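Researcher: Can you fold this with fe (ii) ion in place?
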Amino acid sequence: MKDLNYKQPRINPLAAERGKLIHTFGALAELGQEVSNRQGFHETIRTSLHLILGSLAIMRGGVARFSRFSHELNMVAGRGLGDNFPLSLALCYEDERQFLAAGLYPIENSQAKALPFFQVYDRSLEISRVELVLPLIMRGELLGAVFLGEKASGDRYTSHDKDVLCAMGRHIGVAIAQRNMLAELERKAEENHDLYENLKTTYKDTVRAFAAAIDRKDKYTEGHSVRVGKYAEAIASELGWNAEEIEGAAVAGYLHDVGKITVERKIINAPYRINAKESSELNKHPGVGFEILQPIHHPYADVPLAAKYHHERIDGRGYPDGLYDTDIPYIAKLVNVADSFDAMTTDRPYKRRRPANEVIDDMKRNAGKQFAPELVTAFFRGMLRELNGESPERRFRKLLGREYMETEGLSAMLQTTLNEMAPTSPLTYVSFD
Ligand SMILES: [Fe+2]
Ligand SMILES: [Fe+2]
């Protein structure tokens, strides 16, 4: 017979409370871990929602992120809210004001009918059986909201439950704040990138305009600076330089003769070989160019040094300082090759352009004297590749004219010259199969 006096073992309320606390702390710790894990934002929010629902045995819920641009709560994760729950919920100024005033604390749907938000979404909240809305407020900023349905037990939310929800809400708030910060950083980085690109374009345009202005002064060698810029670019890309370095080489070429703007027009345009005095005047242009360019910040290459030393020779017989090989900045040696090539291949007041075979021969003979050999071979290689149809651009053809580039035997001559010029550094090694 059943002992009617048998007493059901009583659950110690203290032990139950302790169990609940341990459970809550466990869930909180897990949530904290979740937020600090470097996984995707959506995944973090989804897991956080499951942890909240699980820890208080809540039937359904969702998390939304607030967009301060569109003034909307956009759902990030949801469970059991049904397909009709809005993906995006608009907030009016009054809602935001009230949410911020109340701070991070759950609002009971049934008791918040005065707020426009709860009036507008009354039906949706009703259908999805949302009982609590927890605005996620941190440091006076609305970051999002958590929507929560009824508890599995059917009990009302206790104030203890609400405290737990606040603690958990804080973790989710941190996750959203982090995400916002990241988005803001990305936006700023993009903005900076755009600004930088704009600046670069402005710089390039200015440089080109400047180069054209320099060339205007020299009526016989019109377009000289622009062509030198393009040849310098060709050499740099043949050397395998990156896009910025190639641009730097081009700029150095465009601006190498900027010092000529202070040289008298009649000297520059003299239709005869200039005398010693005039020559010394003209020879000041590298130094003047350096002084003009030095105060300007150049984003890519050492443009001022290219201007200063583009008439130096590696055998030390150049000017203005008579520097030897390794003392000459590389960019200046590069511009020197481009500059000399253009001087030989354009008509001068007292001299007509020289035929291609003569120019190639001259450059080959002067490799190691005036020119750095690997720069000469890089130049030849670029020309040859274009002649062989191996490069998409036709820059040499555009600069030298079709006729010049179609000089009979030019390709074979370049090939032979390249084979003859022994590699002097790893840069020059190239195999032509
Ligand atoms: Fe020059
Ligand atoms: Fe020049």
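Model: Folded with fe (ii) ion in place. The chain has 18 helices and six strands.
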